[in-house]
Design brief:
Elements: E1 2-3, E2 10-13, E3 20-24, H1 29-38, E4 50-55, E5 61-66, E6 70-75, E7 81-86, E8 93-98, E9 104-108, E10 112-117, E11 122-128, E12 144-151, E13 157-164, E14 170-177, E15 182-191, E16 194-198, E17 204-209, E18 214-219, E19 230-231, E20 237-242, E21 248-253, E22 257-262, E23 273-274, E24 282-285, E25 292-295
Antiparallel strand pairs: 1-2, 2-3, 4-5, 5-6, 6-7, 8-9, 9-10, 10-11, 12-13, 13-14, 14-15, 16-17, 17-18, 18-19, 20-21, 21-22, 22-23, 24-25
Length: about 300
């Protein structure tokens, strides 16, 4: 599954044959124009650029979030649009993810991380990380939103990061207890934005600095830092991902390298893996425990 930065299309291919199974445009020009007219804050910046994709746990649905307020749910077999969710009250949907039970989580520019029932299309609960702007505010009043939000593999906690710009802004990592719906802890991660991933046992959160290039581990229950960070990129970190068995962490960044780290010691495993073509690189471990996907 991928998306085109030229056309905005979402494309599904057969992994074995590389055959295109379907190609879907989540937002037509007329749809983008309609969404722009309804966004009183980000209207002129509304577009069809895809920012995040996620498969549902059973593989039947694809959630697409992008440069507008909407999340589009697509049938993973046919490519047909099933439902559109009004995810963000204004701005963009920066991230989409699924919990193990099929709950959809959106990370929105309106300052909320929202949990959704994808069958009914109704919100289940929301966590407000950033104060809501009153209607009539200027775009210059917007300082931060939610960049990413994910539920831990054991389903007990939600982690979310803020994203923003401006002198002195620092991205925060928030962790919430889903049973009580109360904040568990928060910490400053880096300037402007950060990436993160849950360990498979839900005991650790790994964060990557978008400005510092540092890889840091955090105790998911108490929020304390686990050891000293390591400098994992000479540029910005774009992705931080645990291998499925939890033994390794894979990082990739704007310096064009992919690196592997022992998750217990944060010692690098082997040499840097070079980028394929460009200096902006993303990397994700694959389920076979032997391979990783690197995108440049």
């Amino acid at each position: 599954l991928a998306f085109s930065t030229d056309t905005g299309d979402v494309i599904a291919k057969d992994r074995a044959s590389n055959e295109v199974l379907w190609r879907t445009d989540p937002w037509s020009k007329s749809r983008v124009a309609s969404l722009a007219s309804r966004d009183w804050l980000f209207g002129y910046a509304t577009g069809d650029l895809v920012k995040s994709l996620a498969f549902s746990p059973d593989g039947s649905r694809v959630a697409v979030g992008g440069q507008n307020q909407e999340v589009v749910l697509i049938d993973a077999t046919s490519g047909d649009v099933i439902r559109r969710l009004p995810a963000s009250e204004y701005g963009w949907v920066n991230g989409v993810s699924f919990a193990e039970d099929g709950t959809l989580i959106t990370a929105n520019d309106d300052g909320r991380a929202v949990l959704w029932d994808i069958e009914s299309g109704e919100p289940l609960w929301e966590y407000r990380l950033v104060d809501k702007l009153e209607k009539g505010s200027a775009l210059t009043d917007w300082e931060e939103g939610v960049g990413r939000a994910e539920i831990s593999p054991d389903g007990t906690r939600l982690a979310a990061t803020t994203v923003g710009f401006g002198e002195g802004f620092s991205a925060q990592l928030f962790v919430y207890d889903l049973a009580t719906r109360a904040p568990a802890w928060r910490t400053t991660v880096d300037r402007w934005s950060a990436v993160f991933d849950w360990s498979p046992d839900s005991a650790t959160v790994a964060t990557g600095g978008s400005q510092s290039g540092d890889l840091t581990l955090w105790d998911a229950k108490e929020g304390g830092r686990l050891g000293e960070p390591v400098h994992a990129s000479a540029g910005f970190l774009q992705t931080v991902s645990f291998a499925q068995d939890g033994s390794l962490i894979v990082t990739a960044g704007t310096d064009g390298t992919v690196r592997l780290y022992d998750s217990a010691t944060l010692k690098q495993v082997g040499a840097n893996l070079p980028a394929i073509k460009s200096h902006t690189t993303f990397a994700f471990p694959l389920p076979d425990h032997r391979s990783l996907l690197a995108l440049s």
